[in-house]
Amino acid sequence: MKTKKPVNYGLLLYAAALLAAMPAKAQSQLDNYIQEGLNSSQSIKQQNFLLQKNMYALKEAKSMFGPDVTFSTTYTKADGGRTIDFPTGDLFNGAYATLNQLTGTNTFPQLQNQQIQLNPDNFYDARFRTTLPILNAELIYNKRIKTQQVDLQQTEVLLYKRELVKEIKTAYYNYAKAVNATGIYESSLRVVEEGQRINARLFDNSKVNRTVVLRSQNEVSRITASLTTAKKNAESARYYFNFLINRPLTDSILLDQVATPPTQEQLLGNNVNGREELSKLKLATDINSNLTGLARSYLIPKVGTFIDLGSQAFDWKFNRQSRYYLLGVSLEWNLFSSGKNSNRVKQTIADREAIAAQTDYIQQQLLTELKVKHAGMQSALAQYNAAQSQLKTSRNYYADELKLYKQGMAIYIELLDAQNQWIDAQLNANIALYDTWIAHAAIERANASFNIKP
User: Fold this and answer.
1) Which residues cross the membrane (predicted)?
2) Which residues of the chain form CATH 1.20.1600.10?
């Protein structure tokens, strides 16, 4: 009756190793945490603010095609400066004197020569100016570039999200691995404590020697220390996971259950065409093409129109004579710039060649990464299959040794060896199971197969 309990604990241990794991198909809790992390990540919020900035820059570029209306006014008060001499007296005084003699009156006065100041004194000029571009290649290319920069930032946001998803999944699996390891050690502790109690009673009945009792006590101490370490590891894993999803570090984490590694259907995607890194390089190439066009836009003349509606007069007068309108068309054509424009074009062409070389390198790098991740998955699956075989063998070995020990046909050291192999096999199976899911998250990141919800 006393040796029957360890068998039951062993069965409970095996059940815990299989059931307290992550789900293979329905990962509802993990999906919820991923969405929570994507919504609360400060890094992603920062990237979204940059996206908003680029969208406003695009709106600004579009508004440059519309009319601009400005109001301006000037007022001048002047004295001195250049003048124009007007000989009013010399021209009219002689004629006026003759007319006064003929009429016998002083009706025609004598005039002084005048000095007219060129600088306007007590003069204002107020106007509304409306300008509208008719042909401006720079504005066209600028709008295209701003549009592509918005797309580039949207891709950058997706890149941050995809990397965060991988980190959340990896941290989640590591936490589940640590929690299950804690459960295994807790069950193991109950087993060794029961063994210690049985061996102490056998020693009291002179059935075993003191060495067996001391060894039992050592096993209890060893498993207790391992349990403490496992709890600390689980605590650290919980802190890091909550940090990733921007929650209080001590919040509890809900775990789903699974007993199998990812299926072959969950490892689809052997290309890297969906990687945001390549999309960014494609957008960089398109932006470079428009930058080249912008650099060459000097070949096209700029044509615009304007109209002024205003009033100008002395002494703040405002009447029909002071009001005016002025309509015009402007043309600007850069004919010579000492090679500045051609050198600017050559710079953009050099940038294009650099982007092309970088694209080839990055694509090969990403393909290599994907192959390495697939190799890691194959290794993890091999480790899992080996751990499952070892788990089954060690369980049978422990059950056989326990039966022999009960019958007095095996010594305690043999039972202890079987027991330790059984505990180690459960720990290895737990690690191997979650390593397959961590490898799956790495492949999912490498081939960009995770569906990120907007």
Assistant:
1) none
2) 5-74+132-302+336-446
Count other C-beta atoms under 10 Å from residue 380's C-beta. 23
Distance of CA 421 to the CA centre of its chain: 46
Mean pLDDT is lowest, of 102-111, 171-180, 341-350, for: 102-111
Please say if the pLDDT value at position 39 is more than 70.
yes
Per-position DSSP letters for 420-437, written without gaps between them: HHHHHHHHHHHHHHHHHH
Q: Tell whether the torsion through CA atoms of 29, 33, 34 and 35 is positive or negative.
A: positive
Supply the DSSP string of 269-306, one letter for each residue.
----TT-HHHHHHHHHHHHHHHHHHHHGGGGSPEEEEE
pLDDT score, position 339: 86
CATH level 2 (architecture), domain 5-74+132-302+336-446: Up-down Bundle (1.20)
Tell me: the pLDDT tens digits for 206-247? 777 888 888 888 989 999 999 999 999 999 999 999 999 999
Span between the terminal Cα atoms of the chain, in Å? 61
Whole-number Å distance between alpha carbons of 438 and 387: 17
342: closest CA among 287, 298, 397? 298
Asked if 443 contacts 379 with a C-beta cutoff of 8 angstroms, the reply is: no
111 Cα distance to chain centroid: 84
Q: Which two tokens stand for residue 28?
A: 């509802």
Cβ atoms within 10 Å of 85's Cβ, excluding its own: 9
With tokens 């936490």, the residue in question is 175
Percent of the chain with pLDDT over 90: 64
Residues 329-340 have a mean pLDDT of 89
**Tokens describing residue 404:** 């022999």
Give residue-wise pLDDT tens across range 14-23: 444 443 333 4
Band (393; pLDDT cuts 50, 70, 90) = very high
Please name which of 360, 345, 357, 341 lies closest in space to residue 288, comparing C-alpha atoms: 345
List alpha helices for 317-339, DSSP H.
none
Q: Which residue has the higher pLDDT, 5 or 370?
A: 370
Mean pLDDT, residues 82-101 taken together: 84
Cα→Cα distances 231→71, 177, 227, 346, Å: 73, 11, 6, 62
The answer for residues whose C-beta is within 8 angstroms of residue 86's C-beta and 6 or more apart is: 113, 114, 115, 116
